[in-house]
Every structure is written in structure tokens, then in C-alpha cells.
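> @MW can you paste both from yesterday?
MW: sure, first one:
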Amino acid sequence: IEFLRNKNVIVHGVLMMSHMNDIPGLISQSKLMQSFGAEGIILMDSAGYFVPNDVRERVDAIKNALEIEVGFHAHNNLGVAVSNAGQAIQSGASIIDGASMGLGAGAGNAQLENIVSTGIRNKTIDLDISKFLEMSQKVESDYPDKLPLITSSSIQSGMAGVFSGYAPQVKSVSEELGIDSQYLWEEISKRKLVAGQESMVREIAQDLMNL
């Protein structure tokens, strides 16, 4: 951390897959990172599981417990990423992640231009929207095949609280073995898999076949 500070880099702590921990646990981890020298804590809704009330409760609690900035990163599995980002702002988060046209894994991240436009309407953001729209128009024009979509699979992963990067494996394995994909998403959730454990999807599906 001291090396990064010497390089004039802002150091943020990141709470990945934050829905998998309760509020006291998030506060404990946040305080630990603050003690290590983090200058901000980013609450990551990595699975797109939260709805605005979840965001309000967590941002309020973490902000009240810390002396550093609090931020929020949304995924759009349930179609409420922008609303979640807006709630984070209203709850005092000062670091908000977004992406032009929502570019990101699975159902995508919160659309940056929509965060700004709704913030302008709510009088919580004072920025010129034109540059954000210029970027979104470029993304829409140059990368039309990369724009994220909310699919039944991304909704299932969001409801289950599972990282949506598992979607290709879940689709392939559930079709091959004739297992309901929702059932498979739910079982992955029970086993608390995180990103990087994709190889376990088939093993879990086979366990379900043997029940």
C-alpha cells in the first residue's frame, strides 16, 4: 500500500460477491481493509443479486462504520443495476462504477449514461450528459454484437446469487444431462461457488442426477 501511495495511486478495498456475507461481516472486512490503509471500500454486487433496499442497508451500514469513502459496483442480472447505483448514491456512496451501454459480463454492468441521467433528474449528480451519450453512441455503433442482454439465464443466476460467468457451462451441462437449469443454478448457490470454479458445474450436475 505504501508503494502504491508513493506512486500517487488511490488504494481501494473491494468486497467481491458481497451478497455472500451478512452486514456485520461486511463491516468487519471493511474495517480491516481500512486499517490496512485502504482509502475507499467498493461494495461489489458481483452476481447481480441485490435490489435497492439491499443496497441501502449495506451502504448505510458500511458508511456509518468507516471514516473513508464507500463505493458500489452493480451488475444488471435482475434489471435494477441503475436503480441500485442510484440508491447507493442517495445513501452516500461517492464511488460509483458504470460502463457505457452497460458493457460487462453476463447481463452487464450499470449503464453509465443512465446513472448520470437519473442522477441529474434526482439532483444527486451535476454533470454534462452530452459526453456520456457521445461515448454510448460510439459503443452502440462500433460494438453492436457486444451489448449485454438480460436473458432467462442471467435472471436465474441473479436470483440464485451466482456469478453469471457460469452461464455457458450451466446451459451446456443442463442441456446435455437433461437437468432444469434453475435447479442447477440453485444447487451452485447452495455450494457457494465463486468465479474460477467453473469445472465444478458438471460435478454438481452429476450429483443432482444421482439424487
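MW: second:
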Amino acid sequence: MASQKNEMKKFGLVGKNINYSFSRGYFANKFKKNGLLDCSYQNFDLKEIVGIKEVYKTQGLKGLNVTIPFKKEVLPFLDELSPQSEKIGAVNTISFNKNGGTTGHNTDAHGFLKSLTEVTEKLPMSALILGTGGASAAIAFTLETLKIDFNFVSRNPKQGQLSYDDIDTEILKVNQLIINTSPVGTFPNIDKYPLIPYDKLNKSHILFDIIYNPLETLFLRKGKEMGCTISNGLKMLEYQAEKSWEIWNE
């Protein structure tokens, strides 16, 4: 039995309070469906990112995903970054080379790009990104790639960013795409939502929430009531997970 354990290829998710995690169930189903009996996926729930040093010592570890709130905090604990994750400044996937060295990657950008272009054929000229955490950096990178102008919206805006109080009819008229990258509305706090003037939205707007639990947040529901096109983060997660798997098996 010991030798069998040593042969297991282990993957996992690093984050904080991640019992709700999509990744563990997704990869467990993937391994079962594809007969990958030598693969397992587990959660590494950390209070502080420094705990990742112990995670790295896990026998048979082949790859990691990284989620809130460590996508930026993990950077000092990596040996190198892929060119894309270096530009983004956030990592959600870690691969290991043959010598045990770590490389940080970002597959969120890939997941968002693919899922956004499935939601609409006609991309808007400008967007609002709600939130300024690690996920927002990948969204911003993708919008730049698509040549879509954007503004960050924050509860504590820095120079060049908007506050939620700034969002008015004129700003919403210009910004047809609104992406929630904040955790507001995530289970179990499903009665929360970003404070924007939903009554000023219309059918020309697209609301994209990177949250997937619940599948329809109050942010999305309020947009749907105004005729907006809406999308949750489930497809984005599936696409970024598949990209992670691709990286781990290169």
C-alpha cells in the first residue's frame, strides 16, 4: 500500500476558507470519468500564505491551484512566473519542474476570455471592473487584450479608480459591460450585492459575475430584471481548470 501511495499524483487548491470550493469536486469528477485512478485532488486551507511552504513538501505533489485571498500574496513563494502571470501580477496555478522548482501561471485570463466571447458576439467598447483583488487583475489583462477600455470600481478607490458612489447614469451609458470580481454575494452571504444603480441598467448591458455559488447572485438577478444579458463564473472556472490541467501535464 505504501508504494501505491507514493505513486499517486497529487493536485490541490490553496486558499482560505475553501470548503465550498469548485475545484476539488470538478477534478474528482474528471479523474473518475477518465479513469485516472492514480490522481487525487485536495484542499489546502491556509490561514496565511506562508503555510504554502509546508504544502510544497506534500509527497507526490504535481500541481496547485490558488484562490482568494492568495493570488497576489503567493508571488514571493514562487521561483519564477510565466510571462502572462508576470504581466497580470497574480497567479492561480502552480506547476513544478523536475527539480522541484515552482512556476506561477494565470489561467483566469484564459477562462474569462473564452466565457465572455461565448456570452456575446458584439464586444462592448468599455467596461467596469468591480473589485481590485487578484481576480480583477486577470480580467483587466483580458480586456486590454480585447482592446476594451475599463475602469476599476472600489470601496476604497485609489487614484484613477472609481468609487461605487461615482457610478451614475452617464457612466453606465458608456460602460456596457460590468464584471463583478469582488466576493460580494458569494455563499453564504447571498443577500449581499455590489451597490450600483441597477435601475439605470437596460438590455444593452452585460453583467458578468465571476462568482459561481450561487449560480445566480443578486447582482445578476437585479441585472436580469432590467433586461441585461447575464453570466455567472461557472464556465470561466471550468475553462481555467482545464487550462491548469494542460499546464500540469506539459
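> thanks! Confidence is low (pLDDT under 50) at residues 1-6.
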